[in-house]
Design goal:
- Helices cover 67% and strands 0% of the residues.
- The longest helix is centred in the middle third of the chain and has 31 residues.
- It is elongated.
- The termini are far apart.
- The C terminus is likely disordered.
Length: 175
């Protein structure tokens, strides 16, 4: 049986996302292609791991009770935020690598800026900053349930988390 998804699971993922986002460069001078590809790999790992955990639990729905269902929905939503940040880093890699410079600055076909490595580093840094913001937003959303409770969560939490016992057959009363 796979382990359940809890708020502690979400908090751990949020911590990892915050740590990764904190390491992202914010200036063009700090952009490094090797680090960028490593960041893409790490983020891909987190996305794959989160998706696998959710898939494990979704394949056995009879063992997933309401509180965990709420956590699973939040984990699934977080995968969308991680995928968005991953897409931004993939664009940053496209801008940063010389083989794809034509894609990076299409509107500057005849400009001296088209092949300027500094312009491409600036664009890469901007994508990094956007990816950082996306990851921080996702991490915050993962932690929010422990700090806020919605009416639907209260209803869900109040539901039984254990399966009901089978009804007992009624014994005829002896009067």
């Amino acid at each position: 049986m796979s382990s359940s998804i809890s708020q502690a699971t979400l908090d751990y993922l949020a911590l990892r996302l915050d740590e990764l986002a904190a390491q992202f460069p914010t200036s063009p001078e700090a952009v490094d292609l090797v680090t960028l590809t490593d960041d893409i790999g790490i983020l891909t790992h987190h996305l794959q791991h989160a998706a696998e955990r959710a898939q494990e639990r979704f394949t056995a729905p009879q063992t997933v009770y309401p509180p965990e269902r709420v956590a699973l929905v939040r984990l699934t939503r977080a995968t969308a935020g991680i995928a968005s940040a991953l897409d931004m880093l993939a664009e940053a890699l496209t801008f940063a690598t010389t083989g794809f410079q034509r894609e990076a600055v299409e509107d500057l076909a005849h400009s001296h800026l088209r092949n300027d490595p500094e312009v491409l580093r600036i664009m890469t840094a901007k994508k990094y900053v956007a990816a950082r913001a996306r990851l921080r937003h996702t991490a915050t959303a993962l932690r929010e349930a422990s700090t806020r409770t919605t009416p639907s969560m209260l209803r869900t939490a109040g539901l039984r988390t254990q399966p009901t016992a089978l009804p007992q057959t009624r014994q005829p009363s002896r009067h």
